[in-house]
Amino acid sequence: MENAGRRDITSQAEETSAVELSHNLTTVTTEIKAYQSIGGQAIFEIGRRLKWVKENDLAHGEYMKWLKESVNMNPTTAQRFVKIASELPNRYSSTDLGWKALYEIATMPPEERDNPQQLDSGETKKPDEMTVRELRETKRKLAAAYSENMANQTLLTQADKKAQKLQDQVTKLQRDPEIKQV
């Protein structure tokens, strides 16, 4: 007997891409296991299916149990696969990058994912050419640069406010000069 809290997925299925996913949890589970055995596109297909199951099939709180018991997948890994499938364009699906490298790229700022980056070694590489270690190093450097930029923006805003306050005082003094008699 099926769980009473489980939603009827056939009435709520939504197409998540050009290819419609099965409405049968057993079929989706089998597909995920099959995709786990191959690389490249598999990471995207697993992530896509995990996202679909989480959004369309299981009652609240059942997803984690299903991950462990039916798919034998760590929830953190599942979350990362979903992030990869959601964030990265399809061109990454044909690469020979592992899921850890793909996850590091998926969690980079979108505007930096295709830009060449200078590594501590002096070498310049695009993210899809980097190792996981190099990607993490690059992300740390980008985060530090972002933090520094935000701090500089804050200082600039404060300086602009002070300058405006001083300009307002100068304008007021020019309009209303006080003449003191000695």
Automatic annotation (TrEMBL):
Residues 122-131, 173-182 have a biased composition (Basic and acidic residues). Residues 109-131, 162-182 are annotated as: Disordered. Keywords: Plasmid. The keyword Repeat does not apply. The keyword Transport does not apply. Pfam families: DUF3102 (PF11300). InterPro entries: DUF3102 (IPR021451). This is DUF3102 domain-containing protein. It comes from Levilactobacillus brevis.
